[in-house]
Amino acid sequence: MHRILSILIIALLMLSCNREKKGIIYIEGKQHSVKDQKVYLTEARYSQGYTRFYKALDSTRADKEGKYAFEVTIRGSDFYQLRNENEHLLWGHDLFLKPGDTIQISETGIHANSLETTEINEFPERLSKEFPHRLPEWIKMKPRAFNKTINKRFKEISEYTDDYFATLDVPSKAVKRYKKENIFHRLNLKLNYLENHNYYSYGEWYPMPLDSLRFSKPVQSVIQDTSWYYSHTYQELIKNYVSTKYYSKYFNPLDARSDKRSLIKRKEIIDRKFHGKVRDIALASLANDFWRYLPAMQDRFFEDIEKILEYFKKVKTTDQFYDFYEEMYFKYKRIEPGNPAPGFTLRDSSGQHVSLNHFYGDFVYITFWNTMNRVFTSNLDKYRSLSSEIGDYDNISLVYIAMQPDNKDAESAWKYFLKTYPFGKHHLIAPGQMNNKEIQPYLIEALPTHVLIDPEGIIITPRAPGPDKITETIFKIMNSQLKINPSS
Length: 488
Hints:
With about 500 residues, the protein is an alpha+beta fold. It has helices at about 1-20, 115-130, 135-140, 145-165, 170-200, 220-225, 230-250, 260-275, 275-290, 290-295, 300-315, 320-335, 375, 380-390, 410-420, 470-480; strands spanning about 25-30, 40-45, 60, 65-75, 80-85, 95, 100-105, 110, 345-350, 355, 365-370, 395-400, 425-430, 450-455, 460. The chain starts with a helix and ends in a 7-residue tail after the last helix.
């Protein structure tokens, strides 16, 4: 009896030693990108990628110089994140913090009161400098050469990681995290290679199956370990696995219906391959790419995302990833054809404020662009031709919204561009690009993007064709609704 009691006491003592105590951390920073904005401190386990989090541990407001500070009690050493009010990461990587830490963060660096905490948090940046990303170059390689290159590279990365932490007294949790990240990153590179190979394969070579590159471990077995489920590279691994499976088995660019089946086919792959939290993450990852599916799928897109929402609601294991999918679903439903177009008020090149309702009564073709976007600028003649083509019609307005960075230089570049390369008539500027609050409801993720709105301010299509095809589309719609009246 005494022996059993002694064993229990020893076990309890070991548990109490291993259980880290709560403690206070102090973080202060100065970053111009968050001046006069809210700043959030989140636990990494509530991360849903670089631009999303589920809930915050604490928040504060940065002053006019971008200074902010946190004093928070944490429940033990772990990974945390700093986010701005648009939910984007302020420090490019997760922060490893432990009770008693004091952290100073600037635009270019990080410093802690302990050498170990500083070295842990500097590791991702040092690793990326030591081993720069060269995926476009690698994708052009033949499979055998690519496989050999990647395997050699990650052997070197593994050795660098071991050497880096060998002389540091750091918690094992941090070292395990970075070693796991290296595994995820290696698998992601291979999956990206396969996805790109299969996407561009038709007419050149046959698609490659998922197991073509001799993965050291089956990807699914790595995915099933959800210990680091909040890691962006882990979430990317799940997303890339589904995408690679889709492109190797279902996609055919010669079949016009391939893209229209994309979402449901991916949902079917997820349903067959995953369960539990992994399935939650995989379904949520579909919402991250809604912007990619919408242009190709159009009306079917909204039908399919609703089907997936209902399925997700039935199978979810937690609310964290389901809530993200549901949030994105409702955002996209707002721009479904037949809904009122989100209003906006922006400045024109003369400084006057112009609202969307200024154009009511006309068909409105909005082009979102910016001065640095080569896809738009290299096709400028097509937009000029479009202006000439519909110039005789007084019930069509072409509106150009420049998505420029929020600074005077970017605005000057826009005005210079319009003066040097004149085109179109109605020009507005959206400072802050995709983060401009007036424009955010349109969910613009790529440029150029086009939106077509009817004379009553109702969305005809949230992703309209480009300038070489829009005229035919508008005239077909006008012929079915009203008589075309050229202006005299």
